[in-house]
Amino acid sequence: MDIALLGLGRMGRELVPHLIDAGHTVTAWNRSPGPTETVGRRGARIASSPEEAVAGAAVVVSVLFGPDAVRETIVDPGLAIPSGALWIDVTTVAPSDAADFAAWASDHGVRYVHSPVVGSLAPARAGSLAVLIGGAQDDVREARGVVSLWADPDKIRTFDAPAKAATAKLVANLALAISMEALSETLRLGHAGGLSTDEALAVLPLTTIAPIAAMKGPVVASGDFGDTQFSAALLAKDLRLMLSTADTPLPAAALVAAELQRAVDAGHGDEDFSVIARDR
């Protein structure tokens, strides 16, 4: 099957090999040319524009930075996705964005499914991501055949509307962000009371934040946040989407959003989001 993939950020680059290994013909596009070299060596055809990428595609997969990038790349220019094609949007967006994109697609004869992922680069590489899929029943069924290439089959969740899948992704990332803040604060308290980072981390497997401590504790202990699995800038963007979506205050989310924005403003936006636990 001919598949166009728009967006070769960290996640997009990990999805391409799964498509190629499954026998699909992949045409990839990215705003900046650097990442195209990696997927080109892997066997993808490189397009010079989104228009070139989607020409003749049966499926279009978008893995962009956020809703603004989706609008700039696809919606506002009226990208000529072939009529009847399936557009699988992996980009993390607000539910209102997903509803807008679904409406645009319908007006242009395109079938839209929102299918964000939960997980970082290691599970993406291993094909064990959690995947959310929202859309019309038949379109979800077809999309599942594509997104299952990078999914743990036990971690696929389906929804009857794109907006619900978008909301579910924000729910998952809110839990992640607050868990990371909890790890950061427990370490600050431990340091204040004389515990080393390693001594504090040794306690956390006994607590409810054991998963985030296991995942990000070693990163914090090393002080090396440059092996970015999920960037501070991306999670900061997602938190803005959460705060604009909620109809009641989200105090913990607002606090983590401020922490992440301070990291971004200090030049750490491209580092792993666990940078918020950096020693002050």
Could you characterize what this model shows?
There is one protein chain. This protein is an alpha/beta fold. The protein has helices spanning 10-21, 36-42, 50-54, 67-75, 95-107, 121-126, 137-147, 162-192, 197-203, 210-222, 232-245, 251-268, and strands at 2-6, 25-29, 45-46, 59-62, 86-89, 111-114, 117-118, 129-134, 151-159. A 6-stranded parallel β-sheet has the order 3-2-1-4-5-6, sandwiched between helices. The protein has a 3-stranded mixed β-sheet with strand order 7-8-9. Helix 4 (67-75) links the parallel strand 4 and strand 5. The radius of gyration is 19 Å and the shape is globular. 47% of the residues are buried.
Fraction in beta strands: 5-15%
Biggest beta sheet summary: 6 strands, parallel
CA distance, first residue to last residue: 51 Å
Which parts are unreliable, with pLDDT below 50 for 5 consecutive residues or more? none
Number of strands: 9
The percent range for helix content is 40-55%
User: What is the 3D shape?
Assistant: globular
User: Can you give the mean pLDDT?
Assistant: 97
What structural class results from the helix and strand content? alpha/beta
Write down the secondary-structure element order: EHEHEHEHEHEEHEHEHHHHH
Oligomeric status of the shown chains? single chain
Number of helical segments with 4 or more residues: 12
Rg calc: 19 Å
Strand order of the largest sheet: 3-2-1-4-5-6
